[in-house]
Amino acid sequence: MKVLLSWSSGKDSAWALQCLHRRDDVEVAGLLTTVNEVYDRVAMHAVRRSLLIAQAEAVGVPLWSVSIPSPCSNEAYESAMTKAMIEAREAGIAAVAFGDLYLEDIRDYREDKMKSTGIDAIFPVWGLPTPQLAREMISSGLKAHVTCVDPAQIDPELVGRRFDEDFLADLPESADPCGENGEFHTFVHDGPMMRYPLDVVSGERIERDGFMFSDLRLKEPADAQIDEDIYPKG
Fold first, then answer.
1. Measuring CA to CA, which of 15, 139, 164, 169 is 20 to 30 A from 189?
2. DSSP annotation of 195
């Protein structure tokens, strides 16, 4: 079964890829990503397209990029995705996999929109307990940086941090350890689903539309001496 994976560049979609790789009946044919055409970045996660391309190459799965406007209405988003699904069906795609964990309304929305496409919706990480899942990700060798936080839910100072045990310890009890309620978003740069790691550095912090973002870019040789300043421990 040829499958597209809805790919945010973050840890949940990366773990969904890991789960799909374990199945003998699935071929992951592409990473389906929406990219903001104004800023040329992954929608919501605000990851540069150059990083997204490098990540897809490291994963070893073709990137299926879908451009969306900014701001993007539901109608514009659904129109862009409808076109993508027509292309997917013509390419023999049988299903789209999503990295959703437990939000029923989101799952219902995806399943409802997929009905008319002739393509199934599957959820390889659905229902996994998020406290255990977050720690399983970390113990597996998955490495990610927090690219966006919602200051209404967690401390904005957590943006730019590594997704690790120290980060989990600094989350408030009200926050989901996997950020399923939009508390934070990540970019994965290493893990068992990748053929090789990416060296990234965290740069400028920007507040936009009520969210705090941390810019990421690929590391250059000159960055090697300032790692500890950019990546404070804990």
1. 169
2. S
Could you tell me if 11 and 84 lie in one domain?
yes
Please report which helix (H) or strand (E) contains residue 106, including its range.
Answer: helix 104-114
User: Token pair of 90, please?
Assistant: 């013509």
CB 79, CB 72: distance < 8 Å:
no
Four-point Cα dihedral 59, 62, 68, 72, nearest 10: -40
Tell me, yes or no, whether 113 and 12 share the same domain: yes
Q: What is the pLDDT along the chain (234 residues), one digit of tens a residue?
A: 999 999 999 999 999 999 999 999 999 999 999 999 888 999 878 899 999 999 999 999 999 999 998 888 999 999 999 999 999 999 999 999 999 999 999 999 999 999 999 999 999 999 999 999 999 999 999 999 999 999 999 999 999 999 999 999 999 999 999 999 999 999 999 999 999 999 999 889 999 889 999 999 998 765 544 444 433 333
Indicate the angle between helix axes 130-140 and 11-21, nearest 10 degrees: 80
Q: Which residues make beta-bridge pairs with 162?
A: 145
Give the tokens for residue 69: 């406007």
pTM reported for the whole predicted model: 0.91
Residues 139 and 39 in one domain: no
Q: In whole angstroms, what separates CA 187 from the centre of its chain?
A: 6
Which residue range is the domain that position 80 belongs to? Answer: 2-122
Residues forming beta bridges with residue 214, ordered by sequence position: 205
If asked whether residues 106 and 160 sit together in one domain, one would say no
